[in-house]
Each structure stands twice: as C-alpha cells, then as structure tokens.
Amino acid sequence: MSKFRQVWFLRLLAVSPLVCTLSDGGLLLKRKKSSSRLIKWEQFSSGPVRRRGMLFSSIEFQTDGKKETIPWLSKSTSCEFRELVYRRLIELHARRANTALSHVASLVNRSGYLRTSEAQEIAQFGGSQIKRLILPPTDIELPRDQTQPFEELQQWAKSDPTRIEQTRKDFVATELDQFRALFDSVESNPLGFYPVSTDGFKTANSFLS
C-alpha cells in the first residue's frame, strides 16, 4: 500500500491533513478523528488530473460521474500520487480491454473471411468499448502487456486497413493449411489422369443404342 498526505501546515489552520491510501481495493480517504471513505477502483470514471497552483497542487478525477478533488498536495506528492493511481486504473482497464478483444475475436472467427460490413460492425463495437475505458496516459511508461490491448482495440475501432488485411490473410492461410492434404492429393493425381472404369461407358452406350 502507498500513503500520501496533504501538506503539514494545514495543522496550523486547525485542519487535519487528509491521508490517501492506495490499496488493492481502492483509494481510502481518511482524516484524523473522522470516518474513512473508500473509493473502489471500479468507481473511477476518469484518470487523475494534476492541477498546479502557485504553491501547491491538487488532483481531480471523476467517480460515478461525480467530480472529486484532493487539494493541498506538494508538487512531488501530486506527481507520484497521479502516477500510482493511473497504474492501478490501467491494470484494471487493460483487463476490460482484453475482454472486449475476446468478443472481437469471436466475431472475427464467426465471420470467416472478414467482409467490409462485418469490419464496420466490429468498429462500432470497439468504439463503444473505448468510450468506457480509462486510456493509458502518454507521459507514464507502462508495461507492454497493459498498453497493447488498448492499441489493438483502437485499431479495430478505427477499422485499421492493415489489421483488417492481416486478418483476411490469416484466414486464407488457415484455410489453405486445413485443406493442404486435399490440395496435395489433387496435385499429385490431376483429374485428367484418374483411372476411370469403362463399365460406365458400356452401360451408357447400350442404353443409347
């Protein structure tokens, strides 16, 4: 767990500094001699935004559509706080992106050779899922296995021509591999050289006569 506190001089104003604790369950907010409040990671509807003031900084984010603000943070505290909150959120939303990609894969498998109309339907689905996700920030380095699901889902949402073409090529390659034995058999025994019984011709000739 990681803990962050508001600046100490709030005590001079008879205000108990807020303590923010990051845990697996969410963000716990606690003031001395007051009840604590837990904001679950699933409740976050936006990533944290750092606001810089003349002397201090604040962190803002949305939870269930409501704006939350944590003021009176030092510059270093607000920077580290924002990064660690983002890391928690991206870990969660990367799993959600992977779930969406699993559904995309099922749609692709069901389609066979991916037609343009089917790619457009997948793009609509991908776009609807992107809107529900908190996307990775560009200024924080995150593990590749966490950022890649977002990139792939965005490619589907944008009907990326390269991805669509590769999907079609993969389908053709799979089909060729599946029927390779049949193709090899036809190639080694061309239709013009298959042994044909003459009994059928005799029967046909006697019938015609």
Structure description:
The chain has helices spanning 75-111, 116-130, 144-157, 161-178, 180-188, 199-208, and strands spanning 2-5, 19-22, 26-30, 37-40, 49-52, 57-63, 66-73. The protein is α+β, with helices and mostly antiparallel strands and 209 residues long. It has 2 domains: 2-83, PH-domain like (Roll), CATH 2.30.29; 87-184. The strands form 2 sheets. It has a 4-stranded antiparallel β-sheet, covered by helices on one side. Strands 5-6-7 form a 3-stranded antiparallel β-sheet. The model is unreliable at 196-209 (pLDDT under 50).
Please write out the topology.
Elements: E1 2-5, E2 19-22, E3 26-30, E4 37-40, E5 49-52, E6 57-63, E7 66-73, H1 75-111, H2 116-130, H3 144-157, H4 161-178, H5 180-188, H6 199-208
How would a textbook summarize the main sheet? 4 strands, antiparallel
Helix vs. strand class? alpha+beta
**Strand residues, percent:** 15-25%
Compute the number of strand runs: 7
Q: What's the SSE pattern?
A: EEEEEEEHHHHHH
Distance between the termini: 96 Å
Mean pLDDT: 88
Task: Give the radius of gyration.
Answer: 31 Å
Number of helices: 6
Total domain modules: 2
The largest sheet has its strands arranged as: 1-2-3-4
Shape type: rod-shaped
Helix content: 40-55%
